[in-house]
Amino acid sequence: MNYLNFSTKAASRQERSAQWQMITRAPSAELGDDREASIRGCDLGELRLASVAMGEHRLENDRAVLADPENGLVKFLFLEEGECLVEQSGRSVSLFAGQWCAIDKTLPFRTEARGATRQLAIAIPKRRLEELRGAPRHFAMVECFLNGAGNVLHESAASAINAATVLGRRDRARLGDVLVEMLNMVWQADPQISGARTHRARRRAVLDFIERNLADPNLSISWISEALGYSKRTLHKLFAEEATTLNRLIWNRRLDHCRHALLDPSQSRRSITEIAHAWGFSDSQHFSRAFKMRFGTSPRDFRNGNLVH
C-alpha cells in the first residue's frame, strides 16, 4: 500500500464487513450498524499510517500475523472519538477519546466498539522500537495523548497522512523515519509503569474521567473517587493549586459546553432547558443562576445576542 482511500459501499452489513475484511486483510471483521466505514492510509517506508472512521464493529485477529516476533508489527492505536474495547494476552482495557495504547500484532487480539469511533493507527516493525526490556510495558496499557510528547506524535502523524500524497517514495521513507524517532521518544518518555502514580498523570486521569462523564448528572467527587481508586483527600490535593474547587471545575466545564451549544446554529431548535439537561444540570433555575454568575448574562440573553460588556 502506497496510499489508500476506501469507503464501504454495499447493500448489507455482511457485504460491507466482507469488503472491510478484504481491503484491510483483517482475519475477522464484523460491522454492526449501517454507518459507512472509511479508511485513509499510507506507507512511509516501514511505517504504516491509517485514519479510520467506523460505526459499531468487532475486529478480531485470532492468530499471529508473523511467526517471527522481531519482524512482526506493533500497532499504536490513537482513539480520537468514541470508545473502544481492546483485548490481548488476557488483558482487557477500555480506550476513550484522547487515549492510545499499543497492540502486538504477532499475538491474537480483539477490538470492539458499540458506537461510532474515529481512530489513527501507526504500525511499525517490532524491531524498530528501541526499548522492549522483556514484556512490552505499553501493550494494551492506556496512555493520554492530549498533551506532551504524545500530542506532538499524534498531530504529526495525522498531518503526515495528507502530506504523503504529494511526496515521493524517498521523502515518504524519510518522513516515516522521523515519526519512528518521535514514537520512540514517546515510548520512553511516558511509561505507564512509572508515570501512572505521578501528580500530573493522576490529575490528567481525573480530568479525562470528568470530560467523559460530564453529561451524567450523577458525576460527583464520590463517583470519581470510587472509579479511579483515589481518596477524596487525594482528589482535593491534586487540584489544591487551582483557583477553584473540583466541584466548581465540573460546573464550569458543563457551563462551557452549554455556552458552546447556545452559540451553535445546528442546536437552535433545542430549548435552553434541553441543553442544560443534556450537560448534567437537573434544575433549570440553578443553571440560569450559575450561567449568569459565570458569563455575566442570562442564557436567554446570551443566545439572543444581548451580551453584557
Automatic annotation (TrEMBL):
The keyword DNA-binding applies. It comes from Altericroceibacterium endophyticum. It holds the Pfam family AraC_binding_2. One of its GO terms (molecular function) is sequence-specific DNA binding. PANTHER family: ARAC SUBFAMILY (PTHR46796:SF6), HTH-TYPE TRANSCRIPTIONAL ACTIVATOR RHAS-RELATED (PTHR46796). Keywords: DNA-binding, Transcription, Transcription regulation. Residues 204-305 form the HTH araC/xylS-type domain. This is Helix-turn-helix domain-containing protein. Coiled coil: none annotated. It comes from the Bacteria. SMART domains: HTH_ARAC. Signal peptide: none annotated.
